[in-house]
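User: quick one, sequence for these tokens?
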């Protein structure tokens, strides 16, 4: 018995890590050089390590044996290093960890956690200390490796350290904190193809659902926008109205899969299961009164439209930061479903209602040589270190 027990005993290893909130998400942050050698390069070892850190795959979908919080917003990992580019301070790699499957999705970014990258980079010496004032603001230029895009954040500094506390309130986050403006530069894909089909609106044929009007956009993150009314919703739904409805979740996954094919992200709907993070599906509607998940009243007069979005197969409790970029971009372009839901016309910003409240986002669109271009999309977030030290995983995890 003792020999068998000893044979099964594998010591845990310690890895320096920081648990951070960024916007309405939480994740485990690592410096690349702190990872075990085998996990410093993309591949199976890295994926296995991060799955074990977060506590996946978990058939119970609770992630009890890891750092994950059993939602798409809290099953996230970030790896940071000094940038190889002279025009950037830090390279940012994001991994969305599946809760119940042995899978880490590297296909997109997390816009919410983008707000935490600058503070982490400054606090951990990834930004030149000579650029950090005693009091003021540091502009941190971030290279988002997953999507090959630049993000610029403005991080406040007080007494030589990152300011984390403050009075900026963000719906979906309980406590106020310091405001961090985040700009997503040229958020369309690498070729600037904001609309992969070339259309502001498409007819998306979804088996079992019908033909839906859809705006298929790639800005911030590939997103399929549909009208709430076309699928029997108002756009005011909270999580419990959809996440407990297996038929509704199945419908949204079917829409997502067919949207992915139409956008050229996959060649067959069977591939959608292995690409869970992208595209997102969101449904929109005109502004209406509703009560947010906190009990707060959201008044139609205070918003331009309502939006609900799904992430990793579930209705998001607020709004993904990258999807907010897509909303800003689509709202700025006359004729998209998002723009029409907001009342149409040319606009440079919108305030949209989401399950936790509302959010204001801005973008300016220009039609250049027949193609739409978004120079940047801007929103304000906040970030805070929740815990720092070491995370432990069994030595045979990877």
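Assistant:
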């Amino acid at each position: 018995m003792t020999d068998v027990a000893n044979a099964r005993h594998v010591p845990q290893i310690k890895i320096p890590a920081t648990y951070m909130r960024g916007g309405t998400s939480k994740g485990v942050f690592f410096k690349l050089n702190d990872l075990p050698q085998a996990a410093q390069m993309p591949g199976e070892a890295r994926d296995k390590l991060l799955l074990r850190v977060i506590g996946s795959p978990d058939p119970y979908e609770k992630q009890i044996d890891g750092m994950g919080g059993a939602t798409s917003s809290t099953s996230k990992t970030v790896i940071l290093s000094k940038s190889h580019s002279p025009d950037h301070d830090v390279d940012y790699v994001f991994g969305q960890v599946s809760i119940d499957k042995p899978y880490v999705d590297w296909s997109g970014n997390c816009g919410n956690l983008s707000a935490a990258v600058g503070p982490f980079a400054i606090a951990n010496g990834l930004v030149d200390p000579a650029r950090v004032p005693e009091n003021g603001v540091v502009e941190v230029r971030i290279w988002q490796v997953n999507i090959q895009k630049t993000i610029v954040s403005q991080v406040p500094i007080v007494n030589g350290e990152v300011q984390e506390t403050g009075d900026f309130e963000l719906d979906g986050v309980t406590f106020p904190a310091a405001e961090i403006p985040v700009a997503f530069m040229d958020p369309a894909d690498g070729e600037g193809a904001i609309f992969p089909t070339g259309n502001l609106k498409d007819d998306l044929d979804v088996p079992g659902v019908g033909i839906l009007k859809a705006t298929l956009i790639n800005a911030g993150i590939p997103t399929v926008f549909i009208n709430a009314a076309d699928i029997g919703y108002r756009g005011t739904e909270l999580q419990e109205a959809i996440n407990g409805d297996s038929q509704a979740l199945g419908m949204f996954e079917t829409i997502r899969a067919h949207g992915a094919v139409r956008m050229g992200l996959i060649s067959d709907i069977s591939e959608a299961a292995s690409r869970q993070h992208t595209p997102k599906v969101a449904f929109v509607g005109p502004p209406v009164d509703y009560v947010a998940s906190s009990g707060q009243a959201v008044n139609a007069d205070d918003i331009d439209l309502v939006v609900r979005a799904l992430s990793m197969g579930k209705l998001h409790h607020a709004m993904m930061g990258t999807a907010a970029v897509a909303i800003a971009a689509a709202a700025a372009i006359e004729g998209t479903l998002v723009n029409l839901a907001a009342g149409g016309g040319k606009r440079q910003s919108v305030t949209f209602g989401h399950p936790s409240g509302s959010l204001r986002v801005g973008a300016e669109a220009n039609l250049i040589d027949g193609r739409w271009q978004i120079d940047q999309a801007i929103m304000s977030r906040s970030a805070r270190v929740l815990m720092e030290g070491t995370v432990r995983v069994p030595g045979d995890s990877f």
